[in-house]
Amino acid sequence: MAVVAAGAASADLVIGWCIFGLLLLAILAFCWIYVRKYQSQRESEVISTITAIFSLAIALITSALLPVDIFLVSYMKNQNGTFKDWANANVSRQIEDTVLYGYYTLYSVILFCVFFWIPFVYFYYEEKDDDDTSKCTQIKTALKYTLGFAVICALLLLVGAFVPLSVPNNKNSTEWEKVKFLFEELGSSHGLAALSFSISSLTLIGMLAAITYTAYGMSALPLNLIKGTRSTAYERLENTEDIEEVEQHIQTIKSKSKDGRPLPARDKRALKQFEERLRTLKKRERHLEFIENSWWTKFCGALRPLKIIWGIFFILVALLFVISLFLSNLDKALHSAGIDSGFIIFGANLSNPLNMLLPLLQTVFPLDYILITIIIMYFIFTSMAGIRNIGIWFFWIRLYKIRRGRTRPQALLFLCMILLLIVLHTSYMIYSLAPQYVMYGSQNYLIESNITSDDHKGNSTLPVPKRCDADAPEDQCTVTRTYLFLHKFWFFSAAYYFGNWAFLGVFLIGLIVSCCKGKKSVMEGVDEDSDISDDEPSVYSV
């Protein structure tokens, strides 16, 4: 029987890995389509394109590892609280190590991308703007600037490695003994603390990006889908009226010089401005005409009811997310040990919709994993929407816009770096919504319960399954590897707690702003551009 059970388990795992492989192919295909959709056709470069696709794929693969981690720890146990026949101590340990090494690999790749590869490619193309610069000079300059990022990464790893998670028992120990203790702590953790500290530092930056972009995208994306864009015919009518008005102003100014008198300097400046405005409006007219007659416009018009349905679905998911996050944060404020513990709680004292929904879905495999995957993917797509709507800023200075078919290589690199950071914060956001589920999945363990029997005078004890929680024995419940990376340092957890409140505040502000804003123009962003090309009318979204 044990052999048969082990064979069935192996077959299930093979099927699982096949599904995961197909998922990887789907992720790579999506990343290629997404990057090619937004990159500028005139400024596209092979290295920047490959870097953007690879970075975006790493972000999506890392986000997909959380439901895989939860599934594997849950799959090792039966619903009655017993381990499956094949899930002995060695097999369980191998599965845990495989997931842990997966996190090690992906997080190390993220560190490499954020601190070396993306900065190098970015500065390389910044230097390429100068035509007189040779390839060798470009590489040297890019390496010089990238070295600063590498130093920051090394400092984070060193600080994380030597920050002890416990203190020496002997308070009278010498300085040498204290230093020796630090190295013993480093050796015992196998570098986990160093990597965890570095990733937590990046997650903190990702939290700021999520507050800025994701919170706004959660409100803007659904409402934009529901409201749609303005009518192309109406915009053409407005544009025609603007052209007539500008032409009238030009004629009025030119009429002043009909008798041979020279125009005053103020009129010359005004005439030049009106002529530039007229050229822009005529280009806009050609673009609007192309969009109105294109098959893509007609196709999008046919999909309008579907977009409204998707918008309603997305706003419902956003409300589920926000209400659950609010109740979870309120629970931490009321029942946690405070800031010194990082506002960590085990389980939930206040029920939130997601926490109630996941246990119900666990009874029908794999609905709970589908819901978690939907929330993670929604988190990523709303982040993309927020970056597209807001653009990339450095404080009050706009650096880049994200536009279909017109995004510069440097802007795509920034986009992928921001998404990498946001994905790191996604795991903590999901943990905030359902801490017990993220820690243990659907695992149960057995406890002895006293039962009174009518046949026998007295009480008897029977093993009864109970949902795994912080009180469960360590050998009965397996903690997900995600949790190990989330709570190594209490001060990061405290920062994430306050970040959640800021996230909720920005979401409400974004919701009010999105409701007050009118419909988007089919030519949004064109009027502000000074490099409009006559031969690229098809790049604007409709």
TrEMBL record:
It is found in: Lysosome membrane. GO terms for molecular function: cobalamin binding. GO terms for biological process: gastrulation; protein localization to lysosome. It is a multi-pass membrane protein. Keywords: Cobalamin, Cobalt, Developmental protein, Gastrulation, Lysosome, Membrane, Transmembrane, Transmembrane helix, Transport. Pfam families: LMBR1. The chain crosses the membrane at residues 14-35, 47-68, 101-125, 145-167, 192-216, 308-327, 369-399, 411-431, 489-513. The keyword Translocase does not apply. GO terms for cellular component: lysosomal membrane. Belongs to the LIMR family. LMBRD1 subfamily. Interacts with ABCD4; this interaction induces the translocation of ABCD4 from the endoplasmic reticulum to the lysosome. Interacts with ABCD4 and MMACHC; this interaction ensures the transport of cobalamin from the lysosome to the cytoplasm. Interacts with INSR, adapter protein complex 2 and clathrin heavy chain. This is Lysosomal cobalamin transport escort protein LMBD1. The gene is LMBRD1.
